[in-house]
Amino acid sequence: MKALTIYDSLGGNTEKIATRIYEVLSSAGVESDLVKIASEIDVEFLEYDIIFIGSPVINWLPTPAMMNFVVKKLKEYRKSGRLPSSVPLRPGKFAVCFCTYGGPHIGKNEAVPLTKWFRAFLEHLGYVVLDEWHTIGEFHDKEVLSTKGRMGDTRGRPNEKDLTDVEILVKGVLSSLAAWLP
Asked: Which of 126, 157, 114, 142 is nearest to 13 (CA)?
């Protein structure tokens, strides 16, 4: 099995989650790549058996850099003919969408549009999306935004408990996939 953890991160919250995913995959013996979005990168999504894709929530969606990258890849796949219009499932291809959110926001409902956006992209590629993970993160611009929102004090999040929860989720995904992949 070959895994990709691809993410964008602005304040470091999503990077913590992505790094923990990558570490768990690697320690389980899974051939893994960890990629942060940058203008000069190119990733061949279809080479991977499982993809973990994540971003911080910015106005209910991924970062503009992540959105631009995903839209560019989707257009590239369509133009090359590697994305049939009927969008058949690709056997042995799985994915998980994840994000971090925080500050004065309304909670998980603020994050759901982002993971649904990722889900639509991955399903267009023919991947079976196994789950969507939403993790609280600290709002880095102003301390008041990390202490006065509906979610209470989010300073220091994601914390070690949050990262342990992600570790447990990754191990669960790997356990489930053991029945599907050689």
From this structure: 157
d(CA 102, CA 104): 7
Residue 28: is it exposed, middle or buried by C-beta count within 10 angstroms (0-12/13-18/19+)?
middle
pLDDT digit string (tens) for 154-167?
A: 888 999 999 999 99
CA angle 154, 155, 157 (to 5 degrees): 70
Domains and CATH numbers, the chain: 2-177 (3.40.50.360)
Task: Please give the model's pTM, rounded to 2 decimal places.
Answer: 0.94
Q: Classify residue 159 as exposed, middle or buried by CB count within 10 Å of its CB (0-12, 13-18, 19+).
A: middle
Distance (Å, whole) CA 41 – CA 79: 19
- Give me the pLDDT at residue 131, please: 97
pLDDT in tens, 123-154: 999 999 999 999 998 877 665 566 777 777 88
